[in-house]
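Exam revision sheet. Question 4 asks you to relate a sequence to its structure. Input first:
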Amino acid sequence: MSALKLDLSGQVAVVTGSTSGIGQALAEGLAGCGAHIVLNGLGDRDEIEALRAGLERDHGVTALYHDADMLVPDEIEDLIASTVKRFGRLDILINNAGVQHVARVEEMPAGKWDQIIAINLTSAFHTIRHAVPVMREAGRGRIVNIASAHGHAASPFKSAYVAAKHGLIGLTKTVALEVAEANITVNAISPGYVKTRLVENQIEDTAKARGISREEVVRDVMLHAQPTKKFVTEDELLGALLYLVSDQGASTHGSAILVEGGWMAQ
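Answer key, structure tokens:
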């Protein structure tokens, strides 16, 4: 299925954590297929406005920005409610917001644990619980949670992140069972290492935690687990996403599609 042939014209997609990195790439890909986009995330307001305006200019869609803090349930509720109020529908929900902190478990600040669980896992619960009734009423919906290879396997110094991503895959499976008869699909995409700002920060943090160089982190820690020895690209993740939100993905429920360079094949 070519991305160029996927027509999402008129559909509305909310993408959390979409002002940079993977989320931005996925939002741009959906807009390229004709979907209206609601952006969400942190960053410089002028840069976010340039991104929003660029989506409208380049793809002829409506693009909005909502500044909901993924730590605040009421703001997450307003993100969904505002989308439905503006467009009268919500077809696609992408839960991509995420943060990371690398440290030994005994050195992991309790506040960092709480933040990572809240943003990487609990925020998806809140978006989903408000999106599902809208999708049930419409008779169709697509929910995709951006998990991680770390939702399937662990690495040291990432206790909170690994716990959150395992939980996100469990949430994906459970909700998929609950809404399968409503023509709503709930799935996850589990990337390996993608060269984003988050990964760049992890390189520095992991180098400090392990007492090794940045080059050694990339070669011996990150890409050591990926047989391809290559970072996953954002276009590869977009390919998986477009399948899941298309009609061809209608019978895929509760899956976590691995896009991780063969990591889990070992």
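Marking note for examiners. The radius of gyration is 18 Å.
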